[in-house]
């Protein structure tokens, strides 16, 4: 391992202890409608973004078009030995667009395009050796999906998840200065399977399984050396 890589590893471990980041990777729902339901959208879909959450639910909402957005603006602080700082990261905006169409009585198709994650910290006032301490991660997804209505009670669905992510960081290192290699991009893929079952008119049961999302390595140029980070989900 090179000297720079060792320094980055040590700096990351040291920074991770006091600098608490935000958890915006896996939300209880995607878009403001689903988030307001606290996860119940898996069995009770109300919008086309069910293509991401449980594609089987498309059978219950077609046809429709959805356009929405959410703002993610947490207050993140750290305090170590009386010395602390507040993150100045700006608000993250997560757009949501979805459309659902009925092909026939059994088949429903849909597509959702949305921001699924946005998080990080930015300590501009960090009293470190010559630099800013920040991290940033953003993730977006396009999910074409299809649902098949087996009968009035049972539907099954499949979505293909096509994803794009961007990661960026800057860290001050004693004797080196600020290491800020710029943003790195990664494309990923995965899938979601889902079912809905309504044994009675008043009860609907839903279940969904999302496969692992496989991403390309994030590749950074750190002072002439390539550093790669693997971040599947």
What does this structure look like?
This protein starts with a helix and ends with a strand. The protein has helices spanning 3-16, 31-36, 50-53, and strands at 64-72, 77-80, 83-86, 92-102, 107-123, 133-149, 154-173, 177-179, 184-200, 203-210, 214-215, 218-222, 225-229. The chain is elongated. It contains three helices and 13 strands, in the order H-H-H-E-E-E-E-E-E-E-E-E-E-E-E-E. The strands form three sheets. Strands 1, 4, 5, 6, 7, 8, 9, 10 and 11 form a nine-stranded antiparallel beta sheet that branches. The protein has 233 residues and is mainly beta. The longest helix is centred in the N-terminal third of the chain and has 14 residues, at 3-16.
- Tally of contiguous helical segments: 3
Distance between the termini: 26 Å
Radius of gyration: 21 Å
Q: Whole-number average pLDDT?
A: 85
Task: Please trace the helix and strand order, writing H or E for each element.
Answer: HHHEEEEEEEEEEEEE
- Proportion of strand residues: over 45%
Rough shape?
elongated
Oligomer: single chain
**Uncertain residue segments:** 10-22
Overall helicity: 10-25%
The number of distinct β-strands equals 13
Major β-sheet profile: 9 strands, antiparallel
Structural class: mainly beta
Defining key terms:
single chain, about 230 residues, nine-stranded antiparallel sheet, two-stranded antiparallel ribbon, about 10% helix
């Amino acid at each position: 391992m090179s000297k720079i890589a060792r320094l980055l590893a040590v700096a990351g471990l040291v920074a991770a202890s006091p600098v608490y980041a935000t958890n915006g990777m896996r939300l209880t729902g995607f878009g403001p409608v689903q988030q307001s339901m606290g996860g119940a959208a898996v069995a009770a879909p109300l919008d086309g973004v069910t293509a991401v959450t449980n594609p089987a639910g498309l059978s219950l909402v077609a046809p429709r078009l959805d356009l929405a957005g959410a703002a993610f603006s947490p207050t993140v602080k750290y305090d170590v030995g009386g010395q602390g700082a507040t993150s100045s990261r700006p608000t993250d905006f997560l757009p949501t667009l979805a459309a659902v169409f009925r092909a026939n009585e059994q088949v429903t198709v849909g597509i959702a395009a949305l921001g699924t994650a946005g998080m990080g910290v930015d300590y501009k006032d960090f009293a470190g050796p010559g630099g800013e301490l920040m991290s940033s991660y953003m993730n977006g997804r396009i999910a074409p999906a299809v649902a098949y209505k087996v009968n009035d009670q049972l539907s099954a669905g499949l979505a293909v998840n096509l994803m794009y992510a961007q990661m960026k960081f800057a860290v001050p290192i004693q004797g080196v200065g600020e290491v800020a290699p710029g943003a790195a991009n990664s494309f990923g893929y995965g899938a979601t399977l889902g079912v809905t079952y309504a044994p009675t008119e008043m009860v609907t049961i839903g279940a969904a399984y999302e496969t692992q999302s496989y991403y390309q390595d994030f590749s950074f140029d750190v002072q002439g050396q390539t550093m790669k980070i693997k971040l599947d989900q």
